[in-house]
Each structure stands twice: as structure tokens, then as C-alpha cells.
Amino acid sequence: MASKFQNRLMGTIVLVAIGVIVLPDVLDGKKTHYTEDVASIPIKPELDSTVESFEVREPVDDSASLPEVPVEVVQTPQPASVKDREQLNFAVKEVPEKNDYADSAWIIQLMALKNSENAKNVVKDLQKRGYQAHTKLENGFTRVIIGPDVSKSKLERQLIELDKITGSKGQLLKFKPLNP
């Protein structure tokens, strides 16, 4: 004969099995089955007869031959009056190649941060304070740059102010417009 403990254990196992099998179906509620609306693609679409028909044109004969003897084009200069020559000399004016102001601009490189969000926050704060601040991505770092400005003394004064505001000592560098 089975002991009371074994009877209780078997009863518990049966109740748990019924609970695991039957209760999810009972508690799940109304079941809805989703079906996808499938549209079949026709094998060959039916087309209008005007679309299927086309006109075959005759080929154009373009068998033009080049002359056997080379042709030379000779242009004779037309005599210009004295006024026309003066106007031509006036119109052709040499432009100096070097810009005198190319080497006179300066920038402050304030700091280089690895986190670009921090650099953008610093730039926003500096722009609110009236500085001409920008960011430049270079070699995985985001550099905070102030300027450019033609006045070196003005930027030197700003270096001292920026040291008080941000706590970092910036560098005064020449501005290169082709490679800022």
C-alpha cells in the first residue's frame, strides 16, 4: 500500500500537470488567428495591343567619308584701330598672385576633447558669452577653436579670459584658410 505522503505527492503532480496543460488555454481568452492577405502575382500581365506594337525604322546612311588631303584653317588677323588696342590693353590687367592678408589671421586652439558632445557644449557656452567658437574633428579628437581674427592682441586678451572661464590654457596659432 502507498503511504499518505506518496498519495499527496501524486495528487500534487497531477494537479500541477493539469494546471500547466489546461490553465493557459482557459486563461488565454478568445484566440484570434492572424492570416496574411496574399495577393498572387500574375505570370504575364495583359497589355494593350498599342503598347506591344512598335514601328521599325529604316537605318540612316551615315557613311560620309573624310577628305584624303588634310584641310588647314587659316585665320587672318583683322586690323584693329588704335582705340580697340588701348581698350584691350586696359582690359588685360595682371592680378597679384599673393594675398597680403593671407598670413595675418589668428585662431585660438582652446582644447581637444575625445567626447564630441562635451566639445559642442563648451562651444555653445562660449558662443553665448560672445566668442566666435567652433569645433573641428581631427584624428579622433574634437578641437575647440576660437576665431579667426586679424587682431593678434585681441586674441591674446581673450586667451586670459578663456583661461579664467574654462580653466584650460589655449594656444595662439596662425589661421590657414586652406587648411584650418
Short description:
The protein is an alpha+beta fold and 180 residues long. It has a domain at 106-174: Alpha-Beta Plaits.
CATH homologous superfamily caption of the domain at 106-174: Sporulation related repeat
**Principal-axes shape call:** flat
Secondary-structure-based class equals alpha+beta
Q: What is the chains' assembly state?
A: single chain
By DSSP, the count of extended strands is 4
CATH architecture of the domain at 106-174: 2-Layer Sandwich
Query: Mind describing the biggest β-sheet?
Result: 4 strands, antiparallel
Tell me about this structure.
The protein is an alpha+beta fold and 180 residues long. The protein has a domain at 106-174: 2-Layer Sandwich (Alpha-Beta Plaits). It has 5 helices and 4 strands, in the order αααβαββαβ. It has a 4-stranded antiparallel sheet with strand order 2-3-1-4, with helices on one face. Keywords: Cell cycle, Cell division. It holds the Pfam family SPOR. Residues 100-175 form the SPOR domain. This is Cell division protein DedD.
Summary tags:
180 residues; alpha+beta; Alpha-Beta Plaits; 5 helices; 37% helix; cell division; SPOR-like_sf; SPOR-like_dom
Helix-strand layout with pairing:
Elements: H1 4-27, H2 49-52, H3 82-91, E1 106-113, H4 116-128, E2 133-138, E3 141-149, H5 152-166, E4 171-174
Antiparallel strand pairs: 1-3, 1-4, 2-3
